[in-house]
Amino acid sequence: MKEKDKQNLSLSELARRTGLAKSTLSRYFNKTREFPLNRASDFAKSLNVPTEYLLGLKVNH
């Protein structure tokens, strides 16, 4: 998730914001575990971005 890097968030901080373990998040970033689409809105909220943006969908304004 490039947005995490843009916002200079540590894995620990993102884990705290999403309520997930750092090891789980690490697996998502390493693509050794599939990203849970049912948690996309939680991640988007934690990163202050629209869910559509996080999923790579175009957002019409």
Helix-strand layout with pairing:
Layout: H1 2-6, H2 11-18, H3 22-29, H4 40-47, H5 51-54
Description:
With 61 residues, this protein is mostly helical. It has a single domain (2-54), classed as 434 Repressor (Amino-terminal Domain) (Orthogonal Bundle). It is 54% helix and 0% strand. It has 5 helices and no strands. The longest helix has 8 residues, at 11-18. It is globular. It starts with a helix and ends in a 7-residue tail after the last helix.
Summarize the structure.
The chain is mainly alpha-helical and 61 residues long. 54% of the residues lie in helices and 0% in strands. The longest helix is centred in the first third of the chain and has 8 residues, at 11-18.
Number of strands: 0
* Count of the separate structural domains: 1
Which percent range describes the beta-strand content?
under 5%
- Structural category is mainly alpha
N-to-C series of helices and strands: HHHHH
CATH class: Mainly Alpha
Radius of gyration over alpha carbons? 11 Å
CATH T-level topology: 434 Repressor (Amino-terminal Domain)
Give the integer mean of the pLDDT values. 85
CATH architecture level-2 label = Orthogonal Bundle
Q: Tell me the helix content.
A: 40-55%
In this structure, how is the largest beta sheet organized?
none
Spans of at least 5 consecutive residues with low confidence:
none
First-residue to last-residue Cα separation: 23 Å
Shape: globular
- Number of contiguous helices: 5
Say which CATH homologous superfamily is assigned: lambda repressor-like DNA-binding domains
